[in-house]
Amino acid sequence: MKSVQAPQPLIVLKEINKSFKQGKQESHVLKGLDLTINEGDFVMIMGKSGSGKTTLMNIIGFLDRISTGTYLFRGEDVSLLNENQKSEYRNAFFGFVFQQFFLIDSLNVQQNVELPMVYKGMNNSKEKKEKAQHFLDLVGIGDKLKMKTSELSGGQQQRVAIARALINDPLLIMADEPTGALDSETGKTIMETLKKLNQEGKTIVMVTHDEDMTAYATRVIRMKDGAFEEEVTTV
Ligand SMILES: Nc1ncnc2c1ncn2[C@@H]1O[C@H](COP(=O)(O)OP(=O)(O)OP(=O)(O)O)[C@@H](O)[C@H]1O
Ligand SMILES: [Mg+2]
User: Fold this and answer.
1) Counting atoms of ligand 1 from 1, which one is nearest the CA of 226?
2) Is residue 34 part of a domain?
3) Distance between CA atoms of 70 and 132, rounded to whole angstroms?
4) What is the pLDDT of residues 89-135, one digit of tens each?
5) Nearest atom of ligand 1 to the alpha carbon of 47
6) Which domain holds residue 103?
């Protein structure tokens, strides 16, 4: 008889610490964090500048390593994965919206959005273009396909970054201040889009300074000096 297993948490961080060495100086940036993220969570991370939010996001997204502690991703110990495996997992499971957009200026909007599909080895141009168009429509810039990203406003660039993050249908959307560069109306559209994706089952981890954004989350975690201060669960 098959036993019914409880769903495995997507992410489990246990007692993680992160320090950066600069010459002889060492700064202890994340201090003994415990965090479990389940599928379907919309986690919002808040805290002052320098409190360690981006550092935590980088660790969750396999872009940086922990100094001590344990990180389990879908039950797998991340410290046992090699760089190739980490890149594969990153491309398969994560969609990133960075604080800086990290768009490639020499590519147009469509090409930027198609990049994660290219990394995945997709070579059907028509399918790639249709998907790019779909996600650019979703974020409201479907008419900008052939524009250079350097010719777009900050808010439009952020929307290209969001379309790029969504294109591979990631399990997890990691968004570091996705609305920071947007006017409040566009910011609201983006948040409504993220909320809809969350309701459809996507897990979202988002960093923000904006208290108004907390209404969209199911969990709000506040950080101070590299530690969690408190957590509020709203759903
Ligand atoms: N690569 C690095 N090398 C050394 N120190 C670093 C590095 N990355 C981050 N830090 C330090 O870690 C601390 C936390 O930085 P982090 O970028 O995580 O803050 P943050 O909460 O995202 O801030 P902000 O709201 O301004 O984006 C800062 O003091 C920063 O100087
Ligand atoms: Mg940051």
Assistant:
1) 14
2) no
3) 37
4) 998 999 998 877 789 999 999 999 999 999 889 989 999 999 999 99
5) 21
6) 40-51+83-233
